[in-house]
Amino acid sequence: MRSITVDTIIENVKEMCIEANYRLSSDMETGIRSACDRENSTVGRHVLEQLVENLDIAEKEMIPICQDTGMTVVFVTIGQEVHIEGGSLEEAINEGIRRGYREGYLRKSVVSDPLIRENTRDNTPGIIHYNIVPGDRFEITIAPKGFGSENMSRIYMLKPADDEEGVKQAVLETVKSAGPNACPPMVVGVGIGGSFEKCALLAKYALTRDINIRSDKPHIRRLEEELLAAINSLGIGPAGLGGGITALAVNIETYPTHIAGLPVAVNIGCHVNRHVTRSI
Amino acid sequence: MDKVITTPLVKEIAEKLTAGEQVYITGTIYSARDAAHKRMYEAIARGEDLPFPIKNSIIYYMGPSPARPEQVIGSAGPTTAGRMDKYTPVLLDMGLMGMIGKGTRSIEVIVAMKRNGAVYFAAPPGAGALLSKCIKKARVIAYDDLGTEAVHELYVEGFPAVVAIDAKGNNLYAQIG
User: Tens place of pLDDT for every residue, chain A, 280 residues?
Assistant: First the structure.
């Protein structure tokens, strides 16, 4: 049995919320910088140069990369031999979010009721997903999600007969309709399989994977590569103003599914695809 | 040479802009996004005044992150314009001459833009830190209770934008992809 105090969790979550919003992970940052060299369209290159300058200003002058500092998505992997000491884990995570968004000068973008729409003024609650595993690990990922791209995400309940071709069509249709609204160059998170909700969660989780790491399943790796090439031939380009760099990566996660189904979820991440992971 | 647009934006200038042109905006503009648009729309229905003079104005679809003590404003990039489509034709008919945001607009908005000679600009999306440097003054002038969604009066200098849809209805986005 290993004990972790709620104070440790609060402090880490706070720091991660701030870190995620001021500096991209190195794969994302390198991806945007190298896109500048690969983009053939003049207007597309101009946009990418603005995005690079934006990243530099954000870090140097402590201004969030994007004003939409997101709804805070949290993935917790907790070993079943870990004991949380001093209070509730869920409340500790939300308190970390509360402090991070206040002390980090981050925007409060959460409303308490989807129809009454009153701002909670502290960006809580977060969206927290727990994964309970053997042992005494405790790992936490903070992935603030902007809604420009979130709004352009889709879920499809395909038939098994639709096959790989149907999956490709679903992804391409989603990216096309997302267009400039989703702040390209995007990262496209795809979930295939599971059930309605599992598939959406896979797509979200896929966005937290390093954009240079491909799936370890050969057929999925091929699908990721083919889809990225197809997306980048759509011509949408940076900011949707035309060009060859519409997406930086397609990350696909899969799960076993039912004999009658082929669920596909496409979660679009904008070029400010933020995620920070720590092991505590 | 860089094309500079100053506010208030008159119809004679707006009509001459062409989709695809890069411009730099200088002058006073107003921030308003979802919740502020809803309130303005309801105010119009009740026959009340709007929080700022709408004729020849430019609205920036933006809700900033909070400013640090030494900053004018926090991160301040454009939000998706299409969410304001429902409320926009009535504002255009009252004299709104420019809008700054990101993403596509509805047919209804484009028709109202053509009717009134107005223009829609796209600012670099997700570049809120960069764009905040062009905002020299900022103050909340209405709907303070909405937090980030309050209406801000902003003084901008050299604010970079691309003409996405011009007053003739030419749509840069529609020509792509």
Answer: 899 999 999 999 999 999 999 999 999 999 999 999 999 999 999 999 999 999 999 999 999 999 999 999 999 999 999 999 999 999 999 999 999 999 999 999 999 999 999 999 999 999 999 999 999 999 999 999 999 999 999 999 999 999 999 999 999 999 999 999 999 999 999 999 999 999 999 999 999 999 999 999 999 999 999 999 999 999 999 999 999 999 999 999 999 999 999 999 999 999 999 999 999 9
Q: Between A51, A67, A236, which is nearest B176 by CB?
A: A236
Q: Is A98 inside a domain boundary?
A: yes
Q: Measured between beta carbons, which residues in chain B are less than 8 angstroms from residue A173?
A: none
Residue A214 lies in a domain: yes
Shortest distance, CA A53 to any CA of chain B (angstroms)? 7
DSSP string, B99-168: EEEBS---HHHHHHHHHHT-EEEEPPTT-HHHHHTTEEEEEEEE-GGGGGGSEEEEEEEEEEEEEEE-TT
Domain that holds residue A158: 148-274
Residues 6+ apart with CB under 8 A from A56: none
- Asked if residue A160 belongs to a domain, the reply is yes
Burial class (CB in 10 A: 0-12, 13-18, 19+), A137: middle
Q: Is residue A69, in this structure, part of any structural domain at all?
A: yes
Residue B151 · residue B10 · CB < 8 Å: no
Which CATH number belongs to the domain containing residue A84 in this structure? Answer: 3.30.360
Domain end point (choices A145, A163, A187): A145
Q: From the DSSP assignment, how many helices (H) and strands (E) are in chain B?
A: 5, 7
Any idea what DSSP says for residue B5?
A: E
CB contact under 8 A, A181 and B82: yes
Given the cut 0.90, state whether the ipTM is greater than it: yes
The H-assigned helical ranges of chain A are 6-22, 26-38, 42-61, 89-103, 147-150, 163-178, 196-206, 218-232
How close is the nearest chain B Cα to the Cα of A180, in Å? 5
Nearest residue, CB atoms, A242 vs list B35, B63, B176: B176
For chain B, domains (ranges, CATH) are 3-175 (3.20.130.10)
Q: DSSP class of residue B48?
A: P
Same domain flag for A134 and A80: yes
Q: Is A93 on the interface with B (CB under 8 A)?
A: no
Same domain, A129 and A238: no
- Report whether B162 contacts B22 (CB < 8 A): yes
Cβ distance B177 to A235 less than 8 Å, yes or no, reads: yes
